[in-house]
Write a structure and sequence with these properties.
With 205 residues, the chain is α+β, with helices and mostly antiparallel strands. Helices cover 42% and strands 12% of the residues. It contains 8 helices and 4 strands; from the N terminus they run H-H-E-H-E-H-H-H-E-H-E-H. A 4-stranded antiparallel β-sheet has the order 1-2-4-3, with helices on both faces. The chain binds flavin mononucleotide. Residues 11-12, 14, 85-86, 152-156, 192 line the site of flavin mononucleotide.
Length: 205
């Protein structure tokens, strides 16, 4: 598949056919994705792919329960509307859980020791760990698309990150950063529009 065509034609897929994704395809997608750039080539990612339906249902329920609990706690009942975009990953034949370990960097250590808050520090350092995770996730989506699979980059389920980490037996310092359901698309949505170049680009000559 042409790279540019692949980038432009990939869509977020939220409905999947009930068709298994072979492990060889999943392994190949992760192998390709791992060629993403990362800060100091630290490759601060790891992946757990869940195909077990009971575990996927359990994870999805944890997310729904957490949203309910937060809606009650905050009195903001609108939160419950998030559920539709947060829980559907259990309907896919497989879901890739993406984990990150902290980016290790001497300059950041020194700033931390000097009392810089994490927010102030990352303002000066650019969140290299998270940027690297974004790169590997986009590679997963594109590699999967090239192999005829649909995916959806999901951050909403992170609301239940501690609970999901527990059932997947993932320990500190690793943290869940995204879930990516993957499978053959049951339907392909229309492309949401993009901002015009005039709004997002300025060239200074
Ligand atoms: C960081 C990030 C988090 C996202 N989280 C969710 C999510 O939790 N649930 C969901 O349904 N879609 C999620 N999306 C998908 C976006 O809604 C989607 O990419 C956007 O609407 C553009 O559509 P397209 O991917 O089909 O081009 C997320 C995308 C990104 C990049």
């Amino acid at each position: 598949m042409d790279l540019i065509q692949g980038i432009m034609e990939r869509r977020s897929i939220r409905q999947f056919l009930d068709k298994e994704v072979p492990n060889e395809d999943l392994e190949e997608i992760i192998r390709i994705a791992s060629w993403a750039p990362s800060g100091a080539n630290q490759q601060m990612w790891k992946f757990i792919i869940v195909k077990n339906k009971n575990i996927l249902d359990q994870m999805s329920r944890l997310v729904a329960d957490k949203i309910d609990r937060l809606a009650e706690e905050t009195g903001y009942s609108e939160l419950v509307r998030m559920k539709a975009y947060s829980t559907f990953f259990n309907k896919a034949p497989a879901t890739i859980a993406v984990f990150m370990e902290p980016y290790k960097n001497k300059a950041e250590e020194v700033l931390r020791a000097a009392g810089y808050s994490e927010e102030r520090l990352q303002r000066l350092r650019g969140n290299a760990g998270i940027q690297s995770i974004g790169a590997v996730i986009q590679n997963i989506l594109l590699a999967a698309h090239a192999k005829g699979y649909g995916t959806c980059w999901m951050c909403a389920p992170i609301i239940a990150a501690p609970e999901i980490e527990k059932i997947l037996e993932v320990e500190e310092p690793w943290q869940l950063k995204a879930l990516i359901p993957i499978g053959k698309p049951a339907s392909i949505p229309k492309a949401p529009s993009r901002k015009p170049l005039t709004e997002i680009l300025k060239i200074i000559e």
